């Protein structure tokens, strides 16, 4: 029965996506909600790994727990809920004449354990020389994730960057070649080598790397107000730094460069350097 199902899914892409969405919903209690008041409009995935989009009056100040959140000239802001974020939170909106405080409850998630074998030994335990290279590349990546663009390019909405099969989910605890490693903060989508990858939303290209140690060929796109996305293990890159691109534009091709066991896209969504779940964004994005 299982073999017949997999054969059917391979031949029918629509049912393949429908099937994997059902599996995702069965394994994840999706918590979509809205918070409304005179001062605040906040909606998105109120759960670990979720992304929240907010709106307030332009000159108001917003605090999420003790963190001051940037609010643009139209009153827009973005909040990232980390993988292991605490469940009880406060969001404070400070206006010129009054202040509102809202309790925000975040749903807890359970994450899977994912085992990946067959990686080259140095891709799991790099040498000292390779570690120096990794640190140098990491500085570039972190700097690019923290680029600030005072635009709301993300309001064009988000689509899937590539058609394929989800083989690795956000938050999974990874065991590589039998050794426990950091959780996975992206979404792995397997597809044939050379499959076109598109920008899921309007964006500006802030980084391209041709040969990074872990990520291979990679791209970082900025969608405004700290929201960025990363595309790794690429075969070819079709954009350059500084390019302004539209949702649906081809940016790259699926490959297997860097730390990879086969052709796939590692797709990540961050607010600055805090990673959120791309699947939750696709399922629970507001109608901008």
Can you give me a brief rundown of this structure?
It is built from 5 helices and 21 strands. It is α+β, with helices and mostly antiparallel strands. The longest helix has 18 residues, at about 130-145.
Detailed description of the structure:
This protein is an alpha+beta fold. It folds into two domains: 32-105, Immunoglobulin-like (Sandwich), CATH 2.60.40; 113-284, Glucose Permease (Domain IIA), CATH 2.70.70. Helices cover 19% and strands 38% of the residues. The protein contains five helices and 21 strands. Strands 10, 13, 14, 15, 16, 17, 18, 19, 20 and 21 form a ten-stranded antiparallel beta sheet that branches. Strand 7 and strand 8 form a beta hairpin. Helix 1 (2-11) crosses helix 2. The radius of gyration is 19 Å and the shape is globular. It starts with a helix and ends with a helix. 35% of the residues are buried. Mean pLDDT is 89; it is low at 1-10 and 13-30.
Topology overview:
Blueprint: H1 2-11, H2 13-27, E1 32-36, E2 41-45, E3 51-55, E4 61-64, E5 67-69, E6 76-80, E7 88-94, E8 99-105, E9 113-116, H3 121-124, H4 128-145, E10 165-168, E11 173-176, E12 179-180, E13 187-190, E14 196-198, E15 203-212, E16 216-224, E17 227-237, E18 244-245, E19 250-254, E20 264-271, E21 274-276, H5 278-284
Parallel strand pairs: 9-11
Antiparallel strand pairs: 1-2, 2-3, 3-6, 4-5, 4-7, 7-8, 10-13, 11-12, 13-20, 14-19, 15-16, 15-18, 16-17, 17-19, 17-20, 20-21
Helix pairs in contact: 1-2
